[in-house]
Amino acid sequence: MKRVADTFLSPISVDRSAKAPMHRQLYNWIRSAILDGRMRPGQRLPSTRGLASDLKISRIPVLQAYEQLFAEGYLETFAGTGTCVARLIPDESLRATARPGRVSRDTSEKAHLRHISHRGAALARTPVESGLASLGAFRVSLPALDHFPTNVWSKLVARQAGKTPNSAMAYGNAMGHLAFREAIAEYLTASRAVRCDPAQIMVTTGSQQALQICAHVLLDPKERVCMEEPGYPGARNAFAAAGATVVPIKVDHEGIHVSDLIRRGQKARAVYITPSHQYPIGMTLSAARRIALLNWAATSGAWILEDDYDSEYRFGSRPIASLQGMDTDARVVYIGTLSKVLFPALRLGYMVVPKDLVPAFAAAREAADIFPAILYQLVMTDFIREGHFARHIRRMRMLYMERRRTLVETIQAEAADSLEVIGAEAGMHLVALLPRGADDVAIARIAAAAGLSTIPLTSCYAKMPARGGLILGYGGVDADQIRAGIRKLKRCIH
Predict the structure, then answer these.
(1) Is 99:91 a contact under the CB 8 Å cutoff?
(2) In terms of domains, do 276 and 178 share one?
(3) pTM of the full predicted structure?
(4) Domain termination site, one of 356, 390, 424
(5) Same domain flag for 434 and 455
(6) In the predicted model, what is the mean pLDDT of residues 72-101?
């Protein structure tokens, strides 16, 4: 059995004025801690001498309590480890004691009194995406981890961790580390035509936190926020958490219907869009609609939240310039992430905030978690400035283009009767429509049982569409996994 390392015990209190003898008080406390899960099988206990010293009592009652627990099977001795919680707890004790996690009848009966906010209740009804740890086909948003330059990254991490000055270990700026923000500003100006300076960059723990901060700074409860239909569920959740009302706006091959937005969003405070690579369908917002959208925001006083989540990977042409770069009225908040480009556990993203909003955003960030962790910011600064980032993007663009081609060709050859590919040649995922009448949620559930990670297209809609589909990620799977996965998926559909 795997041993549990020494841990701190919860404070043990003994009452010298109590009628119960001290050894009985110690016995009851340790036995209860074992039965309710506060002390785990294999967890080491302090020595009798050490516990007596901590409690400032005689060693004799501690010895008596331990002896009784040994006799009843709650404690045992492991060679070289000392006194530990027994691996097997007596069955009669477990039957006589409520197990951890069991809700008592009293708690269940009073459940209606356990009040949470309306926002919390709405979030509780929102399904949490499962299979986040899946590394197989067809996990969405998972990059090619096996092609990440781990050796280079490890050296940069070791370099920064080994020379971290005291100033970098103290409290930091709510907006993020200045050198990293400077590197991000240079990158966005050159590659995305974003107009910004480092003072406008806020470092976040990914795009999801950026959306949450935007929602809390820009939206009051019950205010209307428009978003694409279908659209990113994470954005819908962030707006729900802020108590806002989400207004879905349909999309077509040119992106969001700005005319519909103008008609339905007259009192909207903001609109959330993915103009470079619409999530999940994949089209690009046309130039005419970009201009119309910016004009609407300028005249209505609304904000535009531009999520540029994977614009680096466009295969048919050069990456599309950002909407923010066209904005002359400072109505756009630009959101980007490095977690999808490099690896999800990085948890590093950023926002470009209009200059007059920087104080409010900085205050919101400080209220949430004060400031972002600095080590990966330092490492990422070196990764960008030494050219590793640009080289990695170029390599991954070619790799993802090949993997997308393999996926499309395999679908056409193996499952043309079951799946219809739609979307632009960009990003790390595509949408495959199912035959009319097929239940994409049920198929995704069957596929999950078969070891495949897919997202039902209907999960991105506020209202049920006429036709369902599956969102298939190809960034983190090689050609063999793609071919085997499509054959398995076809069987799941049928």
Answers:
(1) no
(2) yes
(3) 0.81
(4) 390
(5) yes
(6) 71
